[in-house]
Amino acid sequence: MIYFDNGATSYPKPFSVVNAVQRSFCDFCANPGRGGYNSAMKSAEMIYNARSAAADLFNANTENVIFTSGCTYSLNAAIKGLCRLGSHFVISDLEHNSVVRPLEKLKKSGKCDYSVAKVTPDESETVNNFVNKFRKNTVAVICTLSSNVFGIMPPITKIAHEAHKNGILFILDAAQGAGYLPVDMKKTGADIICCAGHKGLFGPMGTGLLILSKDINIDTLAEGGTGSNSESLNQPVLSPDKFESGTPNVHGIAGLFEGIKFVENIKCENILMHENKIIKYIFDELKACQSIILYTDFYDGVQKSPVLSFNVKSKKSEETAALLAENGICVRGGLHCAPLAHRKMGTLGVGTVRITPSWFTDEKETEFLVNCIKKIAK
Amino acid sequence: MIYFDNGATSYPKPFSVVNAVQRSFCDFCANPGRGGYNSAMKSAEMIYNARSAAADLFNANTENVIFTSGCTYSLNAAIKGLCRLGSHFVISDLEHNSVVRPLEKLKKSGKCDYSVAKVTPDESETVNNFVNKFRKNTVAVICTLSSNVFGIMPPITKIAHEAHKNGILFILDAAQGAGYLPVDMKKTGADIICCAGHKGLFGPMGTGLLILSKDINIDTLAEGGTGSNSESLNQPVLSPDKFESGTPNVHGIAGLFEGIKFVENIKCENILMHENKIIKYIFDELKACQSIILYTDFYDGVQKSPVLSFNVKSKKSEETAALLAENGICVRGGLHCAPLAHRKMGTLGVGTVRITPSWFTDEKETEFLVNCIKKIAK
């Protein structure tokens, strides 16, 4: 299996991740915060350490790192935790359905409204596009760190800066990028970071992070037993307990902890350099083929993450992906749960074939991929 | 480690469960429904089979079995999925904070109201207590299969029957019980079943089920990418896609699948018989000690599941639990996230020490536990 679908979930996971998940069934197989015996304490301690490692990676405060079941949950929690009757949100035209669908539902039920700002190759123009959408009742901007389809990276720090000047919060969707694109919560100016645990952070599927900046407080999406203040019918008011009801995914968190350590060991910057080298090679090779359509230019001034979408002329993206699958290559064809981005780039009908490498992708696999694509495109 | 805290999470997990989770990092390490290549297809197929196995266990329809991150999420999804402005709920006085806290929050925000019905040893009286709380705007009764603190089992089938006669839905919280107390969705008359995957079903922590009866439709708690209808800004309308946004916990589901198969192999009834034998022995031994307080009588006509709470006179429950922990015994002391149940039984101040065995608990461990308790109680 030659895996180029790390944008969906990373594969393989580091051995330490798989090992930690397996060991968790012995070492941490007790419900943290619900028992005073040794294994429950060890379980709680591991979770604290994982929380602390995630906080370090994003330069956030430990108690404001919340473990979730995935980025979709994190985004729903962020959006619905901020939404009041009459709230307005501004999002980029690259956002994923995990941003658009909750907003669309809230809009349809009359609870909120949202506007879409266009991301262009010109950073100032992009920032202006966001500012022009601001209203008096705008509570937050939601913007992706990197388009999950085209790798385009909006100028998030500048957008966050303008949002703050207008008293508007900035929510960063780091699903595609966390782990290989360095994200410093304070420098970026993100008030909330939502990210997956199972992509660039190499954790297991079923894990995610919701990170709040120090001064922000949001409503809860779910309430329940927290193992704290158990005598009270009311949800605890302090993070992380406030946002983490029910038994946590101890096994997943044990794996994610190792994934984060793996990333910290290698460093985001090195992972990015490695992946960009691979994408650059593929890009140059495909660019030379007349029968292949590329949607972004690697060097046109737009900052871009190592996510590459293409199509073979006269072929549907699913067809190309299926032909690659026959050669043992895993890439995703079709739409990538981001209809706004596809509409923007004119690929809503045909979809795209998406290539997303990882730290584990090597040259040989990359050459094989390129050769297979070239054969299909002949 | 001698583990009597299966009410928090079951330990050990069957070898097949641990093995399946580990294998999932190779066999199913691809995002189901997001790729047409082999491992993504295998991943989707495994999830379908797991869904089907869960449906068989509860006599439900496969497409109405929804995988969640735990029972807390399932209950929040059920409650908030049904709640409209002005809705009224009726719950038992044994409910967990995962039922009470969401309702309390909705009540405080003026969205809904709820009433608490008293469960007594007399079944008819209990049913009447529920019926007396019904209002014109009551949308659902929420009732536990078995108290997570005292093992008391309300007459759910009769309560559900009365609810239906009044056009009211019945939500069953099967967190404590699923796996050792047989639950037939159709015979019970439950419209929604919420349960944990990591307790009696022997799955990993971080898994749960939300099961809807055929004719019921509820609103979504979270929306996002589903890998289906990706061109649409709207959430799909059909279950399970409607309720399963984002990357599923593939590893957890692979483990839960094996847990369900394990239960189906042994049969709920046999697990219950085994656990009840253990609890009966402990109960009889502790009943003979004057310095021990028991809160329920095993044979007083109240149907009871194998969950036993006790206290040593003159000792706080946490103190007794800590002394048992010194002997390598894992039990939970304090409050068990169920303040209503503690208030009912007069243990809100002192808490209780809870003993919850599993299929894997043996006689020798049980005798050791009893001897340790007796020494502490001397």
Q: How many DSSP H or I helices of chain A?
A: 12
What is the quaternary state of this protein? homodimer
Shape of chain A: globular
pLDDT under 50 segments of chain A (min length 5)? none
Q: Fraction of residues of chain A in helices? A: 40-55%
User: What Rg of chain A do the Cα atoms give?
Assistant: 21 Å
Structural class of chain A: alpha/beta
The spatial strand order of the largest sheet of chain A comes to 2-8-7-6-5-3-4
Compressed to H and E, one letter per element, the order of chain A equals: EHHEHEHEHEHEHEEHHEEHEHEH
**Mean pLDDT over the full residue set of chain A:** 95
CATH topology of the largest domain in chain A: Aspartate Aminotransferase, domain 2
Number of strands of chain A: 12
**C-alpha termini separation of chain A:** 23 Å
What is the annotated CATH architecture of the largest domain in chain A? Answer: 3-Layer(aba) Sandwich
- Largest sheet of chain A at a glance? 7 strands, mixed
Description:
By secondary structure, chain A is an alpha/beta fold. Helix content of chain A is 40%, strand content 14%. Chain A has two domains: 2-11 and 267-377, Aspartate Aminotransferase, domain 1 (Alpha-Beta Complex), CATH 3.90.1150.10; 15-266, Aspartate Aminotransferase, domain 2 (3-Layer(aba) Sandwich), CATH 3.40.640. A seven-stranded mixed β-sheet of chain A has the order 2-8-7-6-5-3-4, sandwiched between helices. A three-stranded antiparallel β-sheet of chain A has the order 9-10-12. In chain A, helix 7 links the parallel strand 6 (169-173) and strand 7 (192-196). Chain A starts with a strand and ends with a helix. The mean pLDDT of chain A is 95. Chains A and B meet through helix 1, helix 2, helix 3, helix 4 and helix 8 of A and helix 1, helix 2, helix 3, helix 4 and helix 8 of B.
